[in-house]
């Protein structure tokens, strides 16, 4: 089992496929296994590098809080351990915040950027209404057991169409998530890191080609956040999926195929095994 090191933090990482490198940066409480639907798509044409964020999976647990910026240095340490000078970076939710910091602090390491279900943070961040059921769930989630929290979040995490027509996707996703659930302290650490993130004033310094992806039914990170990111990042492309919520990769499987095509377009070396048309 390979590990990268950032100071005293060890980060478990894995590699799949061959080709231009894509670094996946996971969301809150998510491990490598949480990318189960994404990795097979990207690994057709890329070397996919995924890792467990600090406090999750097989990576180091921390007794103290940390910042999104520190997590960005973790991501760079994984690239170093994988022997990649630069890579495409694809982050989802909390991972999208980390990806922003990687692109801002280490622009030479990022070829192209994908920000999924993400936010600029700070005053520009749109949050669930204080009176909403989603906000109420977030306030209680840290006190729930891992499996209880995953099932309780279903109405907010997945789109209505998925819940009605594709429950098998939800069952599969939750099975992967509860295989290595976050501990309560880790949940609090990562929630605090999200709350403190603020990249808005720096986003206009982004140089990597950027694709902003969001589900229009996302109630955890409202889609207005995607508009802020796309307007603020120079040249950014915006893709909103109408039948997707926060876990757009599960609600809309076509999203990762479209992301793969975006990354192929911005790859210096195009793989021979190109992707099918949409």
Secondary-structure element string: EEEHEHEHEHHHHHHEHEHH
- The number of strands is 8
CATH superfamily: Alpha/Beta hydrolase fold, catalytic domain
Count of separate structural domains: 1
Shape: globular
Compile the SSE list and pairings.
Elements (H helix, E strand, L loop, with lengths): L2 E4 L2 E8 L4 E5 L13 H4 L4 E5 L16 H14 L5 E6 L1 H12 L4 E7 L16 H9 L4 H7 L1 H4 L2 H6 L1 H12 L5 H13 L13 E6 L8 H9 L4 E5 L6 H4 L2 H12 L13
Parallel strand pairs: 3-4, 3-5, 5-6, 6-7, 7-8
Antiparallel strand pairs: 1-2, 2-4
Q: Would you mind describing this structure in some detail?
A:
The chain has one domain: Alpha/Beta hydrolase fold, catalytic domain (Rossmann fold, 3-Layer(aba) Sandwich), CATH 3.40.50.1820. It is α/β, with parallel strands linked by helices and 278 residues long. It has helices spanning 39-42, 68-81, 94-105, 133-141, 146-152, 154-157, 160-165, 167-178, 184-196, 224-232, 248-251, 254-265, and strands at 3-6, 9-16, 21-25, 47-51, 87-92, 110-116, 210-215, 237-241. The protein is built from twelve helices and eight strands. Helix 3 links the parallel strand 5 (87-92) and strand 6 (110-116). It has an eight-stranded mixed beta sheet, sandwiched between helices. The mean pLDDT is 92. The chain is globular and about 40 Å long.
Please give a handful of descriptors for the protein shown.
278 residues, alpha/beta, Rossmann fold, 8-stranded mixed β-sheet, 12 helices, 8 strands, 38% helix
Quick gist of this model?
It is built from 12 helices and 8 strands.
């Amino acid at each position: 089992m390979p590990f990268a090191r950032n100071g005293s933090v060890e980060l478990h990482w894995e590699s799949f496929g061959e080709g231009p490198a894509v670094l996946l940066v996971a969301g809150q409480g998510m491990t490598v296994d949480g990318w189960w639907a994404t990795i097979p798509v990207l690994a057709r044409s890329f070397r996919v590098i995924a890792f467990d964020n600090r406090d999750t999976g097989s990576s180091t647990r921390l007794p103290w809080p940390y910042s999104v910026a520190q997590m960005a240095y973790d991501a760079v340490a994984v690239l170093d351990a994988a022997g990649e000078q630069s890579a495409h970076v694809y982050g989802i939710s909390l991972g999208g915040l980390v990806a922003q910091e990687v692109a801002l602090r280490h622009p030479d390491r990022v070829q192209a950027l994908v920000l999924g279900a993400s936010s600029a943070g700070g005053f520009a961040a749109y949050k669930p209404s204080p009176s909403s059921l989603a906000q109420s769930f977030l306030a209680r989630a840290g006190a729930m057991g891992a499996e209880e929290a995953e099932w309780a979040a279903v109405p907010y995490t997945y789109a209505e169409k998925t819940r009605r027509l594709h429950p098998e996707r939800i069952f599969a996703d939750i099975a992967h998530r509860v295989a290595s659930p976050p501990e309560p302290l880790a949940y609090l650490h990562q929630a605090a890191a999200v709350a403190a993130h603020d990249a808005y004033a720096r986003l206009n310094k982004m140089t990597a080609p950027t694709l902003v992806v969001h589900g229009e039914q996302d109630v955890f990170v409202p889609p207005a956040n995607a508009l802020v990111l796309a307007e603020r990042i120079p040249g950014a492309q915006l893709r909103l999926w109408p039948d997707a919520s926060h876990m757009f990769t599960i609600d809309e499987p076509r999203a990762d195929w479209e992301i793969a095509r975006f990354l192929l377009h911005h790859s210096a070396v195009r793989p021979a095994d190109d992707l099918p048309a949409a």
